Amino acid sequence: MPIFVLFLSDSWVSERSGLRFFSLGSPNSNTGSNSTGLNQDEASLLSWKRDLLIANKNISTTVLQNWVETNNNSSSSSSSSSSGGPCGWSGVQCGIWQGQTRVIGLNLTFYNLTGPLPSQGIANLTALSSLIFAQNRFNGSIPAELGNLTNLQVIF
After folding, report:
1. Which residues contact 102 (CB under 8 A, 6 or more apart)?
2. In CATH, what is the architecture of 26-155?
3. CB-count burial class (<10 Å; 0-12, 13-18, 19+) for 15
């Protein structure tokens, strides 16, 4: 079953006049290969989580508790399933990008995240197209490194 993601078109942002839909396929689809790209995505997300917890001492240690390292020494599809790897983590959406299973979306709405938004890690998610941090309490500036995410279409 395909997953449909709603994103705002450029005209909606400037004129509030339109919405577009697109299908990303099933996030747990095994049609793409599990490769170095997904392993790098996992390492990037773990780095971002570590920096978030270090910078924000008041965050509960249960935040993102299922974001744990998996042993991906082979090219099996196990880390692209819901049972392990970043594709099974809360708030993480995977899909096929350039023939590989990759992290394409983060939706951390209502996670009660506070403090500065770490730039390391998340800026390395080259397939990321959707980044949603609604209903959190980040402060400071948006990291300039997010500008390197050329596939990013939604940030909220």
Report:
1. 32, 37, 38, 41, 94, 95, 96, 126, 127
2. Alpha-Beta Horseshoe (3.80)
3. exposed
pLDDT in tens, 86-132: 999 999 999 999 999 999 999 999 988 888 888 888 999 999 999 99
DSSP-derived secondary structure for 50-94 = HHHHHH-TTS-TTTTTT-------S--SGGGSTTSSGGGSTTEEE
**Pair 146, 123: CB distance under 8 Å:** yes
Distance in angstroms (rounded) separating the CA atoms of residues 141 and 124: 18
Q: Global pTM?
A: 0.70
Structure tokens that stand for 140 in this block: 């400071």
Task: Give the span between the Cα atoms of 138 and 40, in whole angstroms.
Answer: 25
